[in-house]
Structure formats: structure tokens, C-alpha cells
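2024-03-11 09:14:02 INFO receiving multi-entity request
2024-03-11 09:14:02 INFO entity count = three
2024-03-11 09:14:03 INFO echoing inputs for audit
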Amino acid sequence: MKPLPQAFFRRPVLRVAPELLGCMLVRRSGDATVAGRIVEVEAYRQDDPASHTYAGLTPRNEVMFGPGGVLYVYFTYGMHFCANVVTGRRGHGEALLLRAVEPVLGLEVMSERRYGAAAPATMRHLRDLTRGPARLCQAFQLDKSDNGADLRGPHVFITRAWTREVLRVARSPRIGIRHGREKRWRFYVEGSQWISAHPRYEDWRS
DNA sequence: CGACCGATTGACT
DNA sequence: GTCAATCGGTCGG
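2024-03-11 09:21:47 INFO inference complete, emitting structure
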């Protein structure tokens, strides 16, 4: 499968968001390859108080202000990484937070990274492999060294969906933010068992 | 420099 | 449901 072209990402973030759902995130690190189908993203934009780019350019958010088609990875809560797909044109400061994928390839590698080699493969562990932005980063071994990584590969890339299935895209408020709750900029695959949020958000249909 | 806090998670009542 | 862990980014003095 060919990686999505740069032009796909270099469009307004709210246009890219629903189209990214169903696409495959592929990660090669060491001699392992893992992959998952993207089922939940959140949009962040410079004119948006919830965005890291709201207050302008800083060393941390520099990658978000560059052109789309790269990864923006940041460190938070003293222990977690979160990964974003940068969108739009240079200077716009926007990105899509990868909140959940459906694990497709390399589930044993993901499990070892998340729980260790000795951990039992319970249903709970399976469900939590990639459910949430920091869990996803751990399973895909994404960290600060991947900040700015080119999404055409080879370390990480995104391909079009592997199925012709028609997805229903739902929207809701974003999770875990203080400001901007009125915006429905969380996009997810309706009915997916792999999304991160609580049931109370399920009613925000698009 | 010191202080505050976070696009989260896991453990626990 | 509640709450602590843990530390880099950011900003004010």
C-alpha cells in the first residue's frame, strides 16, 4: 500500500479529519511492524484556545506550524506521549490528535510494549492496547524522537483504508480539555469498539 | 529562577 | 466515582 500523498494532509484540518478515519497507521521500528486502523481523532487549530498553537510559536509547537504531512509528538503529565498528524499549509498551526486505532498488525508486539512479555493476554488488555492517545503511542513506540517524522515513511506512514466498507463518522466535543468544549471536533467511527471515550459522548451525532 | 499545570492513565474507594 | 504520579513547557518575577 502506498502512503497518502502530502497533498492529502495539506488541507484544512476539519476537511482532513473525517477522511483520516478508516485509514491505516503503519509503524516500523527496530525489526517490528505494527499497524492499526484509525477510528478516533481530534482537530486542533491555531484560533482555538485548546490548541498548543493558540498562543503562538514556541519551541515545542514548531512542528505544528510547519506544512502538513508530518507527525507532531509531545510529552505530557510527566510520563505520556501523544501523537498528532500535522495538517494544513505552513504557518497555520493545526493538527489531528490520534486518539485511538483498531489494532490490526503486530498485536503481540503491542502487548509486550504495553504490559510486558509475561502479562496474560486478557480481553481487557486487548481492548486497551491502543484505546487512548498515550496508550496508542506506547503500543506504536512513538516518542519525542518521532516529532517531525515524515508521514510518507519509512518509520511511520498512513495508507488509505484497506476495505471498501462505508464508515459512519460521528462527532462530539473533545476529551480532556478546559476550553473549547462547545466545538464538536472529535471525530470517530460510529459503532467502533475501539474508541476511547465514555458512553455519554456517544449521543453527539453528526 | 520558581510556580503552575497538562490534548492521560492506572489504581483504588 | 476519586485521585496521585511525574516532569517538560511555559510564563511571570
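2024-03-11 09:21:48 INFO post-check: The beta strands of chain A are 24-29, 32-44, 71-76, 80-87, 94-105, 156-159, 169-172, 186-189.
2024-03-11 09:21:48 INFO post-check: The CA atoms of residues 1 and 159 of chain A lie 6 Å apart.
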